Amino acid sequence: MTIVRSFPRIESAVFYLLLAANLIPLWSVHYFLTGDGPCHLYNAKVLLDMYHSAELKAFYNPWLGINYFFEPNWFSHAALEMMMGVGVAPYLAEKFLQTFYVLAFGLGLRYLIRQINPAGLFMSSFGLLLCYHHVYQMGFYNYSCSLAIMFWVVGYWLRHRSDWTTGRMLLQGLGFLALYFCHPVGLFFAFLLIGSVLLADLLAEIREKRPVREVFQILRQKIIALTVSALPVLVLLAQYVFKKGINPTPRSESDRQIWEDLYRFTALSTMMQAERKTALLVAGLFLVLVLGALTIKIRSKRLQWTDALFVVFGLTLLIYFRQPGGIAGAGILPIRLQLLPYLMLLLWLASVEFPKWIRLATLVFSIAALAALMSIRIPHNRMASDAAEDLVSAAAVIPDRVSVLPISFDHNGRHANGEEVADAIWLFVHAADYIGTQRQVIMLDNYEAATPNFPLSWRRERNPYNCLEKDGNNFEGQPPYADFLHYPENSNNASVDYVVTWCLDRKKFGDHPFVEHIRQQLDEGYDLVYTSGTGLVKVFKSKRL
Q: What is the largest CA-CA distance in the chain?
């Protein structure tokens, strides 16, 4: 009985303990390495350089142009740029952004659940298991932050949906704008959640047999308030769709594959395949809780407005299974959307009045599951940080105002002790871009500038993703391909001044022609000027310099 009476205190303590534990991976290492994170940080640094120095802008300008279109992916770049602009070291700026995401996700989820059902707060502890996911580890900061901010935006709307003032509508509108400049997925699901609750409120009013005129008067007021606050973002969305078009592309994954990924919850596997056992247990607990919730609902024979959240879960499942491979300029949708059905289901589960023994059991499971995941992730996060520092050591021999081509021969990463850093993700595709945060240089693996969705764009004549590739093969592939010796004649006389190789001598691809081609170019046109202590990083300087 003592435990039952003190459950709210226990639940609160567990939540904040788990939230603090989620910060350990970030602050126990120098670099919390993600797939695309270094590239985001580098581009923010370039934007800052171009803003503060006309001389540096003149250096970057023949290579890169600024995309002044209102792209949704500006959030992380603006945040990183502002922090570095006031003197925060680049690696710390990225760490602060990552910390913001973790705190915004955890506290935002708790805030939203409090508006749904204060008795369901224990689900926020369970939800912290979803904070680190595969898409976040891929370095999709804007997408991840959109999910976190979505909790706050929907929670704020729920809290004030019947009592709007001008100030509240303004704050709601700012929330929608923040979502837009993160990622459209968070904005879309915010509207889906809000719309479902609006419809549920309407049905509840009708069920109570209130006068139709009064019901629609109340609904009209809510819709007007929502429309006014959402109007700026709706305009931005319209111009975005007008420019990009819908342009759905077919997905490569089969229906069977995306179903298996969903029930195995592979989205929780961030670094290592070994995490999948725990991920499967998390999916299993979701299933148990759903069965328990449905039993409770059937016995109560009573529907509530919160049951609209279950409808949203169903719609999210439908979207997941019917999704294209890409739409309106956004790609890699299957892995992006896999987390969403679980998040929507979590919100509905929080609305159910579970017995306290189930709540307590869920807390115990959450502690055990997070401990299991962290025990796998943290050692590999440390290895990734060591390897990233090894790569960054190359900056010591690279001067400012040159072009640098990083080539990775092991995207999974390799520690100095020979152990593989990550087997569930290509973590080292852009890790060398941390070098670009230490210098004013052109990093030729800047994938962002080769897409139309980010603040910077390659000048067409110098785009390395066109000038260095052959038959669809480029330096991001495994094995990598790059025809950098002929880059000057393919790019209007631009040059590859330095080449940084990662794991070149490990012979992972044997005598593959692509690898031999790269070696021949290095022998012919470049001098080896640096080898890191581990031997995994080598820097080659063009003989033309």
A: 85
